[in-house]
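Progress against Task 2.4 (sequence-to-structure conversion) is shown through the following example record, which the project officer requested during the mid-term review.
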Amino acid sequence: MAAKKSTATSKKDQIINGYMTYVLEHEKIPASVYKFCKSIKVTEEQFYTHFGSIETLQKRIWDTFFMNTKELMEKNKEYDSSSNKDKMLTFFFTFFELLTLNRSYVLFTLDQQGPMLKKMEQLKSLRKHIKAFAADLIEDGNESKSYKISKHNPALFSEGAWLQFLFLLQFWCDDSSPSFEKTDIAIEKSVQTIFDVFDNTPLDSILDFGKFLYKENMA
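Structure tokens generated for the chain above:
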């Protein structure tokens, strides 16, 4: 059974890698599953074992970015003992490092989607993953709080984390600084701000973050 699972995973990865390479080399999305499968030498049956359509494959690529990010974080021995804020920082830093390794594909696929609603459709599954990750952090933090009034709303925080991700994604797409160092700054300041908001001490961080955004937009 283990060998079959490994083979299936390998075929899934082959299709994902093949798709990312295909769109970059042809500068377009495959016209059909048939033509795509023929180009990477897999059968349609093998494709449909893992993906229902090209659109589903696009969503699964974003899921793979998320899963790989979590796997990398959990390999860090210090991760489990980190504060929730540091876990969020680690998540964003790691996720955007992976995006940077695949920047040409990410920029292509987001640009090809056109209107924001279409882009959001591609990110729909990723949204669930990020919101669940953020909600888990808040629920973990709430366990140490004795009074209900001091506990935070996981649903509200998770939605804020998703909006934060969308902001950072757009910032990263537009970032032309060396090694995307401005994106790193944006991650630090935005994570600091969102945690300060939930700790009811937002003013300094919001002003600091606002000054950074103003400076970048005016540059």
